[in-house]
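Q: My collaborator sent me two sequences in one message, no labels, and asked for predicted structures for both. Can we handle them in order? The first one she listed is below.
A: Yes, handling them in the order given. First sequence, followed by its structure tokens:
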Amino acid sequence: MSIRNSIVFIFCLLAVCESYSQQDIAGLVCRYPLDNHLRDSRREGKEAIASGELARATDRFGNTCGAVRLNGKDQQISIADYWVGSSFTVSAWFKPEKRSQNELELILVSQASDGTEPTASLLNIKYVQSFYDATSRIYFSVSQNTEDKNYQSHRLEFDQWCHLAFTFDGEWAYAYLNGKLIGQMLILKSLRSNNQPLLLGRDAIMPKFYQGAMDDVRFYDRALLPGEINTLYTDNTAKQGAEVFKMKVSDDLKVSSDKGKCSATLKFFPPVVTLSCGGYEVKQVSGIPSGSLFNVGKTYNRFQATADDGRIITETFTVEVVDAQNPDLQCPADVYVQAPAAAKVMPVRYPGVVATDNCVVKSVEKVKGLASGAYFPIGTTEIRYQVSDSAGNRSDCGFKVVVTQEAPPAPAPVEQTETKPVTVQAPAPATQVTEKPAPKPLPTPVVVKNDPAPTAKSDKKDTVVQRTSSNAPDVLNKNVTPATTVIKSTEPSVSAVKTQPGVVVSEVKPKPNQVEVFGDGVPTKSKIVFPSDMTKPSEPENAELLLLQSSKIGEW
């Protein structure tokens, strides 16, 4: 082959390889991505069966649940309804884990005998490395195996992803590791199908199990070319975006406190977790559960989600309860007091105010007016108080203190009473017996009169004083009856006049005139005694005197 033809051949080979990477490789019958499920992506409704619950594992692209893990003890994946056929290709990704034994087995697929076929027809594809003797062996069936002569170049590393593929074209079987051919063998006998399931990760003859992660198992109905195998190794179509593991909690909440309370009962939606695969657990690590009583103020609610692979995320939101209720303030009723007539101010004490709040009363203060016990002026004084709570809400109330003044007492009118004059009268002259010669007529009586103010009536009766003397000479007429002096006097009385309640005005009348008559028989001398405030005996007050004498007129 010329150099020119060689260059053309290489170019065409690269083009073919590139074409494989741009489109699906023909002949794909079934595929098990093992991304959080065991479903067949090529055959709708078909699903493999796992013995026991498989753990999720991170695939070669970093997808958390892009692969499964087998425990190496009793776990396997069974495909019950597919036979590889007379020619086929099977490939898978492995991430082996170190075991106590001195060998590593990548058990790809196997099938047990149903008893009707010879053991040579059993399928048993695996790649085994022995560390104690530094050898590698490729098993295609129980009776067919070959050695990997280049152990040092193909030595597997624990906890590292590797790609293993087998092809069979009906005569030859080829083994590929990480896109490179590591062994081939001639199959002397044809493979026969049976009704036994295909087993992934387990040896169908020996009770041996693979330990480690497995991912992206594919079956083709033909033997793929080396370039196609390399395409499977370099394929990244299964690569997904960044792993989704997030949690959405409630938005921050702000509510008012319940009426009359310093708290509020609140419900919020539970967190929503999005995880590409696998399970998780959510718990509240701080705050108050939904439906609880939240006090006034801010409460921080923090939730934590933990994935099966140990990853943890937390999210927080706040619940704020606001006290929007004004405090209540009760003032007393208006206060009325009366000050004395001469007072200009009056000390007044009034009741206190009563403040209440649904939370905490912070302060109560007087904002207008005088304090209780202060001296209030005459008139109306307005009092106002204000209360505030811890949230800054305020209320106020007011009342009045009204101070009135007594009117000065009006002077009580004095009732004027008339004093009737005291009249002293002589009785009518006694009947005289006239004898011849006729008696000389008596002189005209001397009457001393005064016009005093009339006095009140007296209960005293007229007093008659009669004095006779048998020894007095009968000058005019022996048969004349002795003169009789009649004194009529009315003693003054004390009268009480009420002018107003509680006031008694006493009016004392002057002492009564006193008249004394001296002498035996016919009076020879008479004396009138007046009250001490009288100055002239010729001006008697409140008295009228009539003197009758038989022989002579007495001298004053």
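Q: And the one she listed second?
A: Here it is, processed independently of the first:
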Amino acid sequence: MHKKGQAATELLIILAVSIVVLIAIYSYSATSIAGLQKQQIVETAQISVQDLANAANDVYAQGVGAKKRVFYTVPTNVDQSKSGIEQNAFVINVLESDVYAGVNTCLLGSLPVDQGGHFIWLTAQEQCVFVGIENISLNKTSSYVTLNQNDSEEDTVTLTNNGTEAADIFLTRNWTEGDVNLSLDTYSFTLNPSQSQLVTLTYTSGPTASGTYAGNISVDAAFASGDENNSLPVTAEVLVSGGGVLAIFPATRTSNLMSNNIDNNSFETCNNSNNTLMNISFSDSGTIANWIDPISTITSLGAGMCKTTNYTLTVPGATSAGSYTGIITATDGTNSDEIEITVIVIEMKDCFNFDWSTASFDGPGKHLDNWTIENTCDSTISISQMKVRKWSENDLDNALLDKIKLNNNTRWQDGAGVTDADIWRDIDADFTIAAATSYSNNNKLEFNDNINDDYEEFYIVFGFSDGSSYTTPVYPVNDLDLPIVTLEAPADANTYDSYNTLFSYNVTDGNSGIASCELLINGASDQTDNSITEGITQSFTKTFTSNATYGWDVNCTDDSTNSNESGSDLNRQITINVPLQSTNFNFSWSTASFDGPGKHLDDWTIENLGSSTITITRMKVREWSVNDNDNAKLKKIKLNNNTRWDGGGGVTDADIWRDIDADFTIAAATAYSNNNKLEFTKKVNDDGEDFYLVFEFSDGSTYTTSTYDP
């Protein structure tokens, strides 16, 4: 007995120790998971702000008007009040800490910072980069005119609505009135989706105007879902007339060029005097003097005339990136003027853009295919070297890189394969990308074993022929992020009086494209869409067949087969409560009359007051035979001048339904007052006959008219 008690005590001790150990293990695991989740949140924010900063620097280096569309993700636990744009930095405050990335210039506009994925446009302006959603686009980046004193010039700009909602547009001049005035032919209008509007700008100069006048036009767009703001810089240069004045305009010109680039450009040389100017010659000075080819002399320039003067500028090879200036001076020996030329020499990396969003693995997972490379400038760039980095850190298959293909041509190959040591891989014969050209298909990294099964990551370093380089973001191979689905309409507990319902939603995914989305009705798949555009409103149209309350949701699957529904909206419901067709039907005898012989009762009114089509299936015509002494018979029923029932030799008004041929539908909010007829074999307006009609509709409901007493 003592031994049994001892054994029981020992068992209890063992169980107690085991429970303590299990609690400790669980606590450690929970802490580790929580720490990993926080790390992922911070990393998501870091990747987003860095991608935004890189894109802002790219468009600013390319010059005014350059733009780029960027996708970024705002993680959970974000403090929106502390996130957005701060002077020259993008900031996302997560877990009470700022995650930020600075740029090389100031930032204007606004940055959406609500949780989820967002597309944003970055546009280079004169001194800053504008950040914002761009549903409203302008066909030019600035307006510039030249005019004389006491003169007027016009310029035009076209605004286009690229969004899916109508927009109310409001234009505001930010312009100091005085020597030069600016007016617009319209200041507000509405743009429907895909619609454009031409706006005319009129500049008017006074008698004392001189030099350059600048401002901007604010373009404010109001959508149902929110506002959007943009700006158009506007400039007027007034040329001053006077005795013996030689003028060049514009006074300055700036070009963004790479080494070995040629810029063929021009300026206007003008004679603002009352006499002909002879032998106008040109000379150049400054750091770019040797870059400009000799400019031909203008032998004669008439009074009040201007001549376009062309010049050719070549940036020498191996010129370092930076800003270079020079002056072109025109003189006839007595009068002179000049234009200052600024050349911003950029490197090939400034024109290069890379995008992982189009990338995917082949079936076996040995090839990382179809990433995008792009030349955003107007000159050719040349890739001479590449490094492929990082994958071997987590790869358990010891995969080796054995081939790099660009535009489906092998540009580097190693038969034995290599690891991702920090060694340049020379690109065979260099790979050139023409101006404004991109390649999204058939760019490949080929390995000898699987490289998408062990949480491998990748980034590429591109080396260009001018010695500059570009490093891509890290590519997350094993995409564990779920699509973010947001239901837009209808709202929860909404009631519809129509069987046709539009379900709208939005979906984003920071790491993958969206393969498909499906509409769920009461938890079951109803229909699927395989052509999804992220970040904009998508929709399904569903036709119900009966009144009821239905639960609805949308489930989306990304290219990595991750699926997700809308989360907090899982219980969203809609009630279909379509009134009986007879409720929306209206009838009036007030328009009715008999024809001359009194055999036809014509032109009574039938009307659909509702928002859904109603359908007449049968009719009864009653009462006339009670007082009729002519033994008239009902021969035909016409609706909207078409025979819908034909009784042949005619019938009396026994209580029998007359089937309407092919059913007669009345569209929503539609009435027919003419050519509705009851046709009889004899007079039915001479013996005190009365009439009333009974209509039956496709939902089984009926409507009985008042009695017609002629």
